[in-house]
Amino acid sequence: LNGNLSAIVSGLPPELEYLSLLGNNFNGSFLFNSLVNQTRLKIFKLSSKVGTIQAQAESLWVPLFQLKMLELHNFILGSRIPGFLVHQHDLFYVDLSYNKLTGKFPRWLVQNNTRLQYILLNNNLLTELELPRRVHHGLQYLDISSNMIYGSIQEDIGIVFPKLVFMNFSSNQFHGTIPSSMGEMNGLEALDMSSNGLSGQLPKTFWSGCYSLVSLKLSNNQFQGKIFPEHANLINLMALHLDGNNFTGCIGEGLLNSKYLTMLDLSDNKFSGMVPLWMGRMSYLEHLYVRGNQLRGPFPHQLLQSLQLSVMDISHNSFSGSIPRNVDFSSLQQLRLQNNHFWGSIPDTLFTVEGLQLVDLRNNNFSGKIPNTIGESSSLRYLLLGNNSLQSHIPEKICQLSEIGILDLSHNMFNGVIPSCLGNLSFGTQTYDGESSVGNSFSPNWNYTSDLHSIIDPRNYVFFPAPTVVDLLTKSRYDAYQGYILLNMYGLDLSSNRLSGEIPVEIGDLENIKSLNLSSNRLTGTIPYNISNLKDLESLDLSNNKLHGNIPPLLADLDSLGSFNVSCNNFSGEIPFKGHLVTFDDRSYIGNAHLCGRPTNISCNPTRAPEANASTQAEEEEDDHVIDMEWFYWTCGAVYISTCLALFAFLCIDTRWSQEWFYRVDLFIHHLQRFKRSAFRN
Predict the structure, then answer these.
(1) Residues near 309 by Cβ (< 8 Å), separated by ≥ 6?
(2) Transmembrane region positions (predicted)?
(3) Pick from 191, 252, 348, 581: most CB atoms within 10 A?
(4) pLDDT for the residue 682
């Protein structure tokens, strides 16, 4: 629907109870007093999907209806909430999110509606939180996330809103500590304070009083101290996100009281010591993230023996040693061990797991061969083995990875030829199944019944794992890919090995690949002509090899190419400087002595460039006048030595000149001695 919104609304029948205009094509302005004829309206919903609606200033009017539910999106409300809401006292649900609402939190709206249970003001421009003066026993759901609210959280918030079940204050500018009164919220089930500037330690009352918490998210703040003391009483906790803080010490045993914990994210803190063995008794734990800490010790294989972990991320720590060969990986979907000090061979059993999707072992010291079981990983999408000491040939069984999207074998010691069967890999065939979901770690299930009453059960949560993130070297830099972007990113990196032979023509069959890096090897031959089939290619690096021949002109048709490097090879002939290749400068071609044409300054036809020849001749003539400093120094040294020898020989001959020389020397010494004696007497 589009057109004059106010006219459409004012022309509707006056007996409506339910009016929903969500997701239409309205734009322009809207007068809320166009609802003046409505007498029985209980639910009103309005939003636009093509732009924003400007709320017009209007004269005071008293509505004949009492709303129970109000939902407005994509409005420009500014500092004024619609004035007719002052006369509403029966509101049950209010959603004013995504409306560019400014100023203070509308506490009057809460005070005037004692039956209000749900208020959503997220994604606005609010700057100040003012709590109601009186206790509100009805409010259960409060969301003011993604605003610009600054200052500290009022100390009495747990007293003013004692019945809160869902509380989302994330992505604001709050500072200070968590009020101790929040320990009074014994019905609170979901709390999100992430992405603020909160600091200090979590109060004891919080650990003991909020025993109904199902999901707790305090990510990306500045909290410190130790966590989960023995008196912690979060017995219903299922999802815990404490990543991106300054927590220290060991992981407290109070965590054992949260026996239903399914997801634990302690990444990017300052935890030290070893992963405690008692975590193996947390039988519901499926997702474990402890990356970016100071943890050490051997690979915690005991957790895999006693838990059904689907994600284990212990990357960016100081773990060391080898991985036992008898570890049971059967439940794993993701294994992240990058940036540690592991060594030894990769266990054969790792790649026999049916549901394995991601393996990241980069930046360790694994050695030996890629296990022969690699072909059994039918679900593997991301295999990242870069920067280890793996060697031997790249096994052809790796070509059996039917779902692979990103394959990184760079910076190892692989030798031999590139398997031609790599052209059979499935880059670009994945389908989205939700495993890379991005968003909050919890969200309520919403249901509306036919009798116009909204029902929200905050105890029914849909938990999302932390988003899958993969770092990949493309376009000469490391980029992090996640979510839908990751699902559409396909790359092959075999750089910095000892691979030899020619580039197999089958590489041209990887039509959906976006990044291809074969640099810093010992490859010979020419660039296969059918690489021009890779129409989605964004990054191509063939530098530092021994490739020769001409650069195929068809590469100019790769319109998606954002990075191109064929430097330090033996290419010859004229550069096909046309099409998309005109976007790359001479740095893409340096180190190829026999290349000519633009963007280099080397002419492909010297006879047609007299000016260039004259310039070259002038440079040569100028070079003739340049002093060779090395020969200059040798000449000066020879002259000095010859002069000294000639003078010595001259003085050794008994002539009148030599006698005169020695006489003058004796006279000088005599005068010097007389001067010394007179100075001594004085």
Answers:
(1) 285, 286, 287, 288, 303, 331, 332
(2) 631-653
(3) 191
(4) 61
- What pTM, to 2 d.p., does this model score? 0.81
User: Two tokens at 361?
Assistant: 């072992």
Residues comprising the chain, all counted: 682
Residue whose C-alpha is closest to residue 380's, from 364, 358, 395: 358
Q: Which residues, 6 or more positions from 74, have their beta carbon under 8 angstroms from its beta carbon?
A: 47, 48, 49, 51, 52, 53, 98, 99
Domain count of the fold of the chain? 1
Q: Is residue 530 in a domain?
A: yes
pLDDT computed for residue 456 by the predictor: 47
Strand arrangement, sheet containing 570-574: 548-549, 570-574, 594-596
Considering the domain boundaries, does residue 576 fall inside one?
Answer: yes
- Output the pLDDT for position 432: 42
Reading the block at residue 39, the tokens are: 């007498």
pLDDT at 135: 93
Q: Identify the domain containing residue 497 by its residue range.
A: 469-596
- CATH assignment of the domain containing 516: 3.80.10.10
Sheet strands side by side (includes 28-30): 28-30, 53-55, 75-76
Query: What residue ranges of the chain have pLDDT lower than 50?
Result: 430-462, 609-612, 614, 620-622, 624-625
Q: Is 50 strand, coil or helix?
A: coil
